[in-house]
Amino acid sequence: MQREHRAVQQLVRVALALVAVCALYGAAALPVAVAATPPAPDFVLPAAVGGNVRLSEYRGQPVMLSFWSSRCGLCGAQLVALDRYYATYRSAGLVVLGISVEDDAQRALDYAHAHPTSFPMLLDRTKGVSRAFGIERLPTTILLDRGGVVRYLHSDDRASDPSYVAQIRALLDDRVGSP
């Protein structure tokens, strides 16, 4: 399990490095498609409103993880865009989870309340989940297939990019990742 966890973390780091190289050379930061890997590490986090949320409870459904912080100027717009996708595709089974990487728990709660979404806003107070996924840049969005495997990674604020819709639809149509 520990080796699988490190493999997922390494894969996310490589994808983020590719995005950084594209940005450095002025190329468009394209979403990264990820090859088959072990399932993403499971986690349990408290929601800003409600109880705890466990990632493995959503096995069998495509999941979008969006990492954010109040210090990220782009994160608010990203959350709004992802909320639109959630409103459109939740009836088809899409799950969206916003994950705060905020240092200050009260600031994270305030931000979550100031940016209401239809999907759960989770509080990663110790940053254990963001470390497990190798998050180094905000906002970062990770799409998991029905089997909990990381399939796509976006390290940008372009949720309005058509690739998001294409990837969401591909994950919703793919029954192979089902447990």
List the helices and strands and how they pair.
Layout: H1 2-24, E1 32-33, E2 44-46, E3 52-54, E4 63-68, H2 75-89, E5 95-100, H3 105-114, E6 121-123, H4 128-132, E7 140-144, E8 150-154, H5 162-173
Structure description:
This protein has a 6-stranded mixed β-sheet with strand order 1-8-7-4-5-6, with helices on both faces. Strands 2-3 form a two-stranded antiparallel ribbon. The two termini are 18 Å apart. It has helices spanning 2-24, 75-89, 105-114, 128-132, 162-173, and strands spanning 32-33, 44-46, 52-54, 63-68, 95-100, 121-123, 140-144, 150-154. The model is unreliable at 14-30 (pLDDT under 50). The chain is globular and about 40 Å long. It has a single domain (2-173), classed as Glutaredoxin. By secondary structure, the chain is α/β, with parallel strands linked by helices. Helix content is 36%, strand content 18%.
